[in-house]
Amino acid sequence: MEANSVSSKKPEYGLIILGNSGSGKSYICNMIIGYERFETDRRREAVTTTVESHRIDAEPSDLLIYNVPGLIESHQEEIDRNKREIVKAFEQSPISVVIFLWTPVDGRPQPDDIIAFKALKEAYKFPPKSLIFVLNNIPSKRPATYEARIFALLTKMLNPIPISLEDMFCLDTLNSEDNEKFSATRGRLIHFIAEHHEKEQKLQADIIVRSNELRMLREAVKKQYLEAEENKQALELQIKQMKNEYEAARKGQEKRYQDMVFKLDVIKQQAEEEEKGHDPAIIGGGISAASVGALGAGAAAGTAMGAGAGTAMGAAAGVTIGGIGGAIITLYRFRRK
Question: Locate the AIG1-type G domain: which residues (predicted)?
Answer without folding.
Answer: 15-122
